[in-house]
């Protein structure tokens, strides 16, 4: 068999997209809790000052799919599918409502105790993201978010509480979800509210540095608390192709790939790469490196590289090349050899193998695919069935390429497709953009019974897991 015994088949969600109960049991406000749905969502992402001052009426994260009250039912369904793992996140403001408290909220800690106990009852391994776009809103509005070094101490305190509380229950940890997204959505990625006239690029790199130090310190503490802990980074990935073999296009693709490699290089190699140092010098960027920072980053690299993959990208230097599209935050030219989803995300299964090769050749540490999936509109038939063959086709082709990559010698720990149960879309705030094997009766306006039902893909994925990826 291609996949080793114990391969971590599973699924993935995020607290701010599924839990709901946004003010229950002492939880504080998260960044996402002020972000609306639909057309206004992107504006709020990029103009958080307006979002803070505006009452949009409906906020998808406030109830989401109410996993907070349905987790036992949902985990039972995951177990029925045969999940070996479940990638989830802990809501930072559920543990520290403002983020700067010294003592945690016990009700929040108990909630996750109950979730882990439920998962372990079914022998499902938790894979836990410590911060999945869930910096407490208070830290953004009162401290300036991650541009303020005080956030390092707040995060380290938070992570230390988690490591100690859940020792023996959680082995696999991720520090920050898609840490490189701070480059694209600074508010969501780092709680940054950047004023007009400020040096946006310098602020983003300064905040990124603080995230690196915090991640390294958390890795240090995680290993000290429990030597069995495996702690990884999590980076939004997808190799960038040159649009042509024109040398200028090759260089442009390399430059675009370096934007993500930078975050992996620091996490895995433990140092700032020469190309980014040269860039800082050229642009006059001061990240405010303090004494001891470099030593911390060097001494405590991650154990594995986790990443999300939805699509490859394509770039060119030719202004005459038409067909530019923007999907999933990242800019990309339309690749003429690929089809696209209903939301314009280009579908490239082979690109997953390309990305795995690029990452493993560069870092030579275990990989984990913690997000991959197809957002689509699902139709409920009169008999209640949901025939999502398009999702099965998407996942099948990606698993085939993943399988080839493993056979080529790449060490892969697990695969947790995104949105294993329908949840609120991060990019659009919609419910109709569904990813799950499990349908949740809720619409874009928040109406519905929240009833869970199985899609056709449920039994298909169950069979994939039973056969350890041999039957697709």
Automatic annotation (TrEMBL):
<dbReference type="GO" id="GO:0005829">
    <property type="term" value="C:cytosol"/>
</dbReference>
<dbReference type="InterPro" id="IPR033132">
    <property type="entry name" value="GH_1_N_CS"/>
</dbReference>
<keyword id="KW-0326">Glycosidase</keyword>
<protein>
    <recommendedName>
        <fullName>6-phospho-beta-glucosidase</fullName>
    </recommendedName>
</protein>
<keyword id="KW-0378">Hydrolase</keyword>
<dbReference type="InterPro" id="IPR001360">
    <property type="entry name" value="Glyco_hydro_1"/>
</dbReference>
<dbReference type="Pfam" id="PF00232">
    <property type="entry name" value="Glyco_hydro_1"/>
</dbReference>
<dbReference type="InterPro" id="IPR017853">
    <property type="entry name" value="GH"/>
</dbReference>
<dbReference type="GO" id="GO:0016052">
    <property type="term" value="P:carbohydrate catabolic process"/>
</dbReference>
<dbReference type="GO" id="GO:0008422">
    <property type="term" value="F:beta-glucosidase activity"/>
</dbReference>
<comment type="similarity">
    <text>Belongs to the glycosyl hydrolase 1 family.</text>
</comment>
